[in-house]
# Entry
Amino acid sequence: MGGCLGGGEAKWKEPAIGEAEVLLNTAGGDAGKTRDASLGFSGSPNGLTVGPDGKVYSLGTSLAVIEGDHKVGTILDGEAHGAGGLVVLSSNSFVVGKGAQVLRMRADGTRTVLAGTLGKSRKLGEPVSGTVSAKTYHLSNYLPEPFGVRPDGSVLFVDGDVIWRLKAGNLKRVYQVPTRKDGADKTETPVIDVGSAVDQSGTVYARSSTEVVPANLGDVMTISQDGSVGKLDLPKRVAGVKGDLAALEVGWMAGDGGNGVYVRASSHSADYVLHVASGNAELIARDLYGDSDSGCKEGYLVDVMKLPCQMPWALTYSRGSLFMAGNSPVVLKIATK
# Structure
């Protein structure tokens, strides 16, 4: 059941379980021919989220949004160059990382520094204090990446090897990756990879890697609001996925609106989207590397277990739907409920 489902009458029909709607195809279709769509959604993803207004926002070369009428618009263009991470506070207020600072940017380009001061950068592996003043603190030389909001309204962001919680002008350390030895004589400080997530209870999901040691699904950490750190509770196997789940390479994560997480993971033969919660795992979508992007026609439905196009890299969740974009010409909306 690969390719489009339902023929021409299926255009812009909401997906059911087992289906994905192709919200955008930058390689074809009316919206795919626009500069806004390509710069915002098809390149390497720096941030992807659904705003409080229910619209899908993506930070690529520009900050773009898919409107309710399926059109794509640019909110920030040149101002977004070099930015990383994305938290949408409102349709006119966005938190991103740029340089060595966390900024709130508005649609007119106005920016306010929320955290980080310019100057000498913090060294990776250097122990950080539990609480510091946000605007006077020197972040690391890694691009800060805001990725979510905890229930108390605090903004979470990655700063190289540290996850910070930002609220009321202060930074509170959520987690710092310990240094580790890779080989007999080489000590490296792992950095936290892009695509961290937070669930509705405030639990953070993150993983770290070095140039020598990549991160797999079995390496994903869970950091609860009380500071306790654990590992993602995984079953050994799940139907539809070959091999040990813990050995899959992790690409991106998104909270599930409850107490679990959606994960984009890969093996040598397929890309997957998995839902992991309470020690259980379920396969949500699969790309077997078998088809071209021409099989995902904008506005139509496709089979999520036999995607006829390249699976996007980033994902985000909102109100019973997963949205995927980045490193692919297509943007997908996948029904989960």
